[in-house]
Amino acid sequence: MAAEESGGWKTRAAPVQVREADLPSSLPPQTGLTFNIWYNKWSQGYSGDARFVNPYKLEPELHAGTTRGDKQGQIYFCIYFSKGMCCMGKKCEYLHHVPDDEDVARLVMKSEVLDCFGREKFAQYREDMGGVGSFRKKNRTLYVGGLLGALNNKTLKPAQVESRIRFVFGKLGQIDRIRYIESKNCAFVKFKHQTNAEFAKESMSNQTLLIPSDKEWDHRREGTGLLVKWANDDPNPAARRMEEEEAKRESLKAMLQLLERQDANAKHALEDANEDKNEQRGKILSSEVLEKLKKRKLASPPASEKPAVALVAYSSSDEE
């Protein structure tokens, strides 16, 4: 399901994904240099022979909704929401929905140095192609590795694996194309917008590819999570030029759509203002007419008094 097809979130408040009391609090034995409280894991060191599976998962159709950030005009997204583990819900200062075309346009017009979560990008990619990314080039393609482990070694045909990838990643934005390489146990997922690639990279890292209808679902945490990184450039110069031109066209198109939407909103606001003015003018005119009629009525004597005056005048002439 593409992001723009799931706009029902605008009619409801964002729910709490995880209670604060349920977030991990105890530290496991140290196996690295840096501890990540959100994943309850050590990094930058030996962490076992396999990647863990994140116990939390974003379900856009259930978790998306309006937040305090929407009311305040926020344009950046909650990174914890993308991972399925925000404990703030509607009180969150950031956005809780999958980025759509309007979000993409606002982010492009705001800054290309920050990603969709408001984090500062770097001039160069990290050596492992992880992290926030680079502001020097647009990248809409993700490398997705460890597919077999993320399926708990479930046997599927290549077309089924590609369909599974399209199903889970397609919830996070419109996909241009997917390339599954069975021999290397990996795939490349290219989104229509870089913003959705940024969002999906955080959302799908260390996730399972199993779905609730799989018999292996209850044992999904015994598998290994997906390895999601930025894809390297295509070495073909022609392909690289085409990619850059396509990215520029998409950015321009998104900005034009936002400007058109803003113009339409301004036009509707002006029409509503004119209608209110005409309605108010009609009320004022009506009150003025009523006031004049009231004064005219008070100035002229009641019809019942006129015959009495005529009778008195007649009687006086008779007495003389």
From TrEMBL:
One of its GO terms (biological process) is mRNA processing. Residues 295-320 are annotated as: Disordered. Residues 242-279 form a coiled coil. Keywords: Cell cycle, Coiled coil, Metal-binding, mRNA processing, mRNA splicing, Nucleus, RNA-binding, Spliceosome, Zinc, Zinc-finger. Residues 77-99 form the C3H1-type domain. SUPFAM superfamilies: RNA-binding domain, RBD. GO terms for molecular function: pre-mRNA binding; U6 snRNA binding; zinc ion binding. It is found in: Nucleus. Residues 140-233 form the RRM domain. InterPro entries: Cwc2/Slt11, Nucleotide-bd_a/b_plait_sf, RBD_domain_sf, RRM_dom, Torus, Znf_CCCH. A zinc finger (C3H1-type) spans 77-99. GO terms for cellular component: Prp19 complex; U2-type catalytic step 1 spliceosome; U2-type catalytic step 2 spliceosome. Belongs to the RRM CWC2 family. This is Pre-mRNA-splicing factor CWC2. It comes from Eremothecium gossypii (strain ATCC 10895 / CBS 109.51 / FGSC 9923 / NRRL Y-1056) (Yeast).
